[in-house]
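pinging the channel bc i need a second pair of eyes. not urgent but kinda urgent?? the chain im working w is below, pasted from the shared doc
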Amino acid sequence: MSGLSAPVSLVGRYARLEPLSQAHLAGLQQACADGDLHRLWYTAVPTAEGMAAEIERRLTLHASGSMLPFTVFDAEGRIAGMTTYMNIDAKHRRVEIGSTWYARRVQRSGLNTECKLMLLTHAFETLDCIAVEFRTHRLNTQSRRAIERLGAQLDGILRAHQRSPDGTLRDTAVYSITAAEWPTIRTHLRWQLERPR
């Protein structure tokens, strides 16, 4: 297991990221049921019934060194979703932040911005990454807007990149933030969290 996939806990004001555990099953089942997120055709959020298998899948990928999965907790300590470092490339010091979903109750709050700030800070300032990627379905406009609000740049669209569970082909929008851009992005994300609302 590379240093890029070493388990870590990250704590902020609106969120806490803890290494994913089977002990989080019940809370994750409740979180994914909030908003029936599995019904979104353009993304893959597990059902409550499929959550144990999804946890096991992510933990298996962690054991192989290709993923570092987290359980997301809100400010009150309730489980609010999942996120990961994935497609970990230790040789080239790159990670992707993805496989992220949140319960409806925390969407459009400061939680996502703070989670991304914590993950990006750890990637650039502790893991010494040269770039962090984000990928989403080309038609997932909500996710694309959220990635763009972070300050990530669109690298391009991978056309007919993957087959979705329903058999349709997914065009994948690929974004990234580079180490050279990080200081400006960090200032931007801190301002997003602290600005008057």
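so The domain at 3-194 is CATH 3.40.630.30 (Aminopeptidase). and The radius of gyration is 16 Å. — does that match what u expected or am i reading it wrong
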